[in-house]
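Sample entry (376 residues):
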Amino acid sequence: MSSENLKKKRNLVIEQIDKNLSEMNDIYGETNRVKKVAENTRVILDDLDEEFCKKTGLNPEDVALMFFAVGLQIARQYLLTKFPKRLSDKEAAKEVKGENEEHSNRKHRYYNPSLDEIITNPVPFDANIGSNGNLKGGGKLGHRATTLGHDPVLGLIFGTANIATSTLTTSSFLSFHIYTENKRDYFKSKASTYKVLEATMNKILYQGMEGKKIIFWSLWKEIEHLQSDMYTKNSLPIPFISAMNPKLASKLAERGLDMANILTVSKQIEYAIFINTIIAMLHSLFYDGNTEMEEKLHEVKTRKIIAYSDMIASASNLGVVAFTKNLNLLDIGGITVAILDFIKYKEFQKKVKEEFIFGSYKNMVMGDKYNMIEIK
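Predicted structure, serialized as tokens:
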């Protein structure tokens, strides 16, 4: 082998040794780095926790938006969704129907009252004279629990059919013809519930425009009557309950679970959620991040604003109710939303926090360039 070849071979060996030494040095350095991360785990995790709190803390703009949300919720509580004053039956009827008085004057034709009779007469399922016990068991709600025409949902079917056929259908699905004597409505005789519904369908399908007018006015009077009864002192039963158990519907009403209160609480929930949605949309305009994690951190702040504003508004409402002793001001729906939003916020915050801390720690162990905290 020539001296030149030996020299080349020696250079190759030296290069390989240098490469191996460099790799060993890198491994040693990486080992020391990982060791240093491991030795400082507690400090690093504490620092990451502090960093998370800083990144999800509320700045002045966030605080301003939070109190704007509080203001909206408080305005909603007292201007839009407080429990309405309960009226007497006469007061409620006058408020809904105006000065249009109704007079019982049924010229009875089985299942086939005239359009004029339907318009000018009160609804037949308010009759109770001659019921012979068929309306008993209504308790506090009386005949509103034992007639299907007063069910807020089933009434749209059975109440409309009763008006269109001058009949009354009980919660037991028994039907009766209603007639007028001495300007008062009476139970005349038993009717067929099947024929009540059949006659109603026939008016729609086979009696031309006159039949359709009868059904239209019958449905209109049913809706008007439900509106009239809704915010009276006894209100209306919860849908479907009276058809299964009138006594239960009445007992629930005695405990405040009637249709008026359910509608009010539902309205409180819907309006509270709507305001929170608006606040979330407004806060999204403040987002200026680029990464998925930055987006999640911003969402934590959004949920914090909503949860805190809900809790402040609810605490304020409870204070006002306690001071005034006026339960009509109680924001049951808003308080429910506040509790649920706070629970959801805490769950989401915990999830993002774990992802932020352990994700960052993993990046440090793996040697990611974008470590968020320097190892000291």
